[in-house]
Design goal:
Layout (H helix, E strand, L loop, with lengths): L12 E5 L6 H7 L6 E6 L1 H7 L9 E4 L5 H11 L6 E7 L1 H14 L2 E6 L11 E5 L5 E5 L5 E5 H4 L4 H28 L5 H18 L9 H21 L8 H12 L7 H15 L5 H10 L5 H4 L3 H10 L18 H7 L5
Parallel strand pairs: 1-8, 2-3, 2-4, 4-5, 5-8
Antiparallel strand pairs: 6-7
Helix pairs in contact: 3-4, 6-7, 6-8, 6-10, 7-8, 9-10, 9-13
Bound molecules: zinc ion (ZN).
Length: 349
């Protein structure tokens, strides 16, 4: 009998802790993971701010400042001189984790993700977003982390925008899933139901919390749930083997902003959250409920609140489908003229 199976890469360990110290050596030995070298990848600023939490042996430290591909390549050259029995520890926000994923890909070393903020589902996803020298971003498929350790005490101290961004990235799953269904209907694209369900659950669990009458985004219980949902979202992408379950038209919109206005672009999940409103309007859906939630948690609900000019946003929507021509979304159903876009997004102007 033929056995059909598939391989997915699950982290060996996931720890969500709320402690004054991260005893990584203890955690590693508990999981029978022995690494003679631990290589910390961080930014100087974050390391200085949070180094008191790092209660474990670190053999080498590499700080990244501007996070361009060139700068990360220099780190890779230096790391290659070290032993193979090394574990990379990405300690920082999205950019640090993404840089660590890329370093893991290039060096073949395993890596841990120790996020200092819950700003997007990249904590655990097989994709790294990196900046080129000209400011343009590229997306590269990478291995997933060997382990994830989230310290709630640290992520609670991150700016509130990082939390809003993490929420936005999760809410976008619904928009991404609608596009996936659309691609199935119009293009015959195959849906992976495991990936689909996980992405939906991640979205739904955060939505249920946001529906409560009062919500404190800095509450540790909420942050714990946010971390779980972001990780489940990452898992859905790992299962699908692409970002499809968590990235549709709303992400293309955000990528277009990054591409057109690299100096002006803001947190990924906040741009994506605005992209959901845009995509929903193109789908002909009501956005009142989303607007209500956005207002409650401080996500932008108008072009002005997002910090852009009307013409900039119209241009971003116009070129959004070009950001990933393979990804079929609601935007493919329209001829995106300036006039049409302006009419469609009028509730956001
Ligand atoms: Zn995202």
């Amino acid at each position: 009998m033929k056995t059909i199976s598939r391989r997915i890469s699950l982290p060996v360990l996931l720890e969500i802790i709320d402690e004054e110290k991260i005893n990584l050596d203890e955690i590693l030995s508990y999981y029978n993971l022995g690494y003679s070298n631990k290589i910390l990848i961080s930014s100087k600023e974050l390391y200085q701010k949070y180094k008191k939490y790092l209660n474990f042996r670190i053999e080498e430290k590499f700080f990244i400042n501007i996070f361009t591909l060139d700068e990360i390549e220099i780190v890779i050259k230096n790391i290659k001189k070290l032993s193979n029995d090394s574990l990379l520890i990405g300690f920082g926000g999205g950019r640090v984790i993404d840089a660590t994923k890329y370093i893991g890909l290039k060096t073949g070393l395993k890596f841990f993700s120790l996020p200092t903020a819950l700003s997007h589902d990249g904590i655990y996803s097989p994709v790294a977003v990196l900046s080129q020298d000209n400011g343009m971003k590229i997306r590269i498929g990478t291995p997933s982390p060997l382990g994830i350790v989230v310290n709630l005490d640290i992520v609670q101290q991150a700016p509130i925008e990082t939390i809003r961004s993490g929420i936005g990235d999760l809410l976008s799953n619904l928009s991404a899933l609608k596009d996936w269904k659309l691609a199935e209907k119009d293009e015959g694209e195959q849906i992976d139901n495991f990936a689909y369900i996980l992405s939906y659950l991640a979205y739904n669990s955060i939505l249920n919390l946001l529906d409560k009458s009062s919500i404190n985004l800095k509450d540790k219980e909420f942050l714990e749930n946010l971390a779980y949902s972001l990780i489940i979202s990452g898992l859905s992408m790992e299962i699908a083997g692409s970002s499809r379950p968590c990235s549709g038209a709303e992400h293309l919109f955000s990528h277009a902003i990054d591409y057109l206005y690299p100096k002006k672009s803001i947190f990924h999940g906040i741009q994506v959250a605005f992209g959901i409103l845009v995509a929903e309007l193109f789908r002909g859906e009501e956005i009142e409920r989303m607007i209500e939630i956005y207002k409650k948690i401080g996500l932008p609900t108008s072009v002005k609140e997002l910090g852009f000019e009307k013409k900039e946003i119209i241009q971003a929507i116009k070129i959004a489908p070009k950001m990933n021509k393979e990804r079929y979304t609601i935007f493919n159903k329209f001829k995106l003229s300036k006039l049409l876009i302006e009419k469609m997004i009028s509730p956001l102007l």
